[in-house]
Amino acid sequence: MSTTAKRLDDKARGGFARFGTTRIRHGELLRHPVYTRVLHWSVAIFFILSLLTGFAIYSPWLFHWIAPLFGGGPRTRALHPWFGLLFTLFFFFQSLNWWAPMAWTAADRRWMKGMRQYVTNQQRLESEDVGFFNGGQKLYFWAIVVSAILFLITGLFLWFTDLTPRWLVAVSYVVHDLASLVMLGGFIIHIYEGTAHQPGTFRSMIDGTVRESWAWTHHPGWFRAVTGRDPREAYEREERRLNERADVVERSQPDLDARDKL
Amino acid sequence: MANPRTFQIQEISAHPGPVPGQGTRREEAVCKYIDVSTCIGCKACEVACVEWNDHPFRETTFNDTYQTMPTTEWNYYNLIKFVEDEHDGNLMWLMRKDQCMHCADPGCLRACPADGAIIKYENGIVDFQQENCIGCGYCISGCPYDIPKFHPKTNKVYKCTLCSDRVGQGLEPACIKACPTGCLKFGTKSDMVQIAGLRAQQLREVSGFANAGVYDPPSIGGTHVIYVLHDIQQPERYGLPANPTIPPSYTYWKWIAKPAGLLMAVLGIGAVFFHRVMYGPKLPQPEPPELRTGPTEEIEAGRKETP
Fold first, then answer.
1. Distance from CA of B153 to the nearest CA of A (A)
2. 8 A C-beta contact, residue B120 and residue B106
3. CA quadruple A38, A39, A41, A45: dihedral sign
4. Of the candidates B96, B254, B109, which has an alpha carbon nearest to the alpha carbon of residue B183?
5. Which residue among A120, A166, A180 places its CB closest to the CB of B279?
6. ipTM of the complex
């Protein structure tokens, strides 16, 4: 990434940090600063608006359900390209923001090979070379970069259908659809992983922080980088602490039972 | 309007022989016949079209030919194309009335994503319903003849209606009524095809146009506007595509992708939901140890207990 882009990103990050705050409590780590969070939700809002308006035009079965939400068919059609354009704009800044941590590494290739274990929850702890983002997150990011470019180019052709050659509109129509299906698939998995599948993740995009245990579980490489501690050791220490605590509770349990029986 | 078939005689008492006209059916498919060899380029059809549809006259352009504007427009459905065609050292001045071809398999209709914006009648007329049009313009790229035109103020697309309002009242389209040479005719599809065939034969046998023929391209199932051309081998000389086609994006892709995409979305949401149900969450590790003597037995015992 060029230095100009990096400077722009640093400046924006600094500016947003002055206005917004992130409160980091004991046992927590800063995951996403204010600027990243604002970008993420701007992207998310316009993605969802684009998805809904796009789905209305995409499918005759959804047209009558979704189009009224945006003021009817013509208004839906008129709004969709603007939503898409704003999505692309915010995602452009988002990609500058995440360009460096999203770089593809050997660790990500290994992660992709072990995806089966990841998906079936066989691996409770991520392997120690997983940094700020894992291979799956990076794959999703780069899929969006590619589809966003395709969306933008084909979207402009489809926006001005009366000025574009016939064959180009016909080709763009298919490419736009394909890009949206890739995005939709990734989007469903993204929301699931960020909420129901991995508790403790969603708050990283709202409050900006995560628990330390979350960090050494899901991103051990990043945990080591920001705390300087060994993730495995930290995990084992916590396990011992919890076991001791459980022992104490169990030992006191019979007494409670005895009291109940009295 | 009452169905004229209702009062068609089915049986006749004490009538010897078959019932006259039994089982006959009026042909519903209509067709416009255009004989380019007798068109004189008078533009009466253009004026009639503009008048009937109550369109304002457009500004014309000048390019050293009789061509007053390059293409049809949202308020100019019907335009004679003047082609100065040099062929085998001869100059031919070809005049072709250009308008919607009312294809039997209309590309505009295939491409349209808005419910009810484009309809095809039983009689073959393809008509735009502007109140349902969302202004996406896909029909423009679906059309092999570059006919639908976008109106930037209303954000709707317009084209020739084959005067569906007149035809509905039993009248011929306005352009037909105005034609002074009889190069335009209107009737049933089979009648027009027959007349066109005879005229083409006449051109071949009498007028020396060995390649004369009827333009009714089968690649889009035929059209409800047919041309008699003096050279059917090369319709491109008149600016007509020899094999007009609808882009596969609006046929195969649309039929596969629309249901497949929705199915993918539903399956995707279902997959993540049941993944959560089957595999459970990925909690930050370590999780607190499991209870060694759990309340499970007590609960079970409590459930079996009878008061």
1. 13
2. yes
3. positive
4. B96
5. A120
6. 0.84
Dihedral class, residue B222 (left if φ above 0, else alpha if ψ from -120 to 50, else beta): left
CB contacts, 8 Å: A180 with chain B: 261
Give B221-268 as a DSSP string. Answer: T-BSEEEEES-TT-GGGGT--SS----GGGTHHHHHHHHHHHHHHHHH
Smallest Cβ–Cβ distance between A161 and the set B140, B276, B286 belongs to: B140
pLDDT tens for each residue of B172-229? 999 999 999 999 999 999 999 999 999 999 999 999 999 999 999 999 999 999 999 9
Of B141, B150, B262, the CB nearest to A166: B141
Write out chain B residues lying below 8 Å of A59, CB-based: 258, 261-262
Q: Which two tokens stand for residue A97?
A: 């923001």
Which 3 state secondary structure label does DSSP give B160? coil
Best of B282, B287, B291, B298 to disrupt the A interface (most A CBs within 10 Å) is B282
Average pLDDT over residues A100-106: 94
Query: Of A117, A127, A174, whose CA–CA distance to A151 is shortest?
Result: A174
Tell me the backbone φ, ψ of residue A34, rounded to 5 degrees: -55, -45
Residue with tokens 């333009």: B215
pTM of the shown model: 0.87
Residue B17, SS3?
coil
Judge if the upstream peptide bond of residue B286 is cis by omega within 30 degrees of 0: yes
- Model pLDDT, residue A251: 76
Q: What is the mean pLDDT of the segment spanning A173-187?
A: 94
Indicate yes or no: CB of A217 within 8 angstroms of CB of B247: no
Q: Do strands B79-87 and B149-151 pair parallel, antiparallel, or not at all (unpaired)?
A: unpaired
Tokens of B167: 């035809």
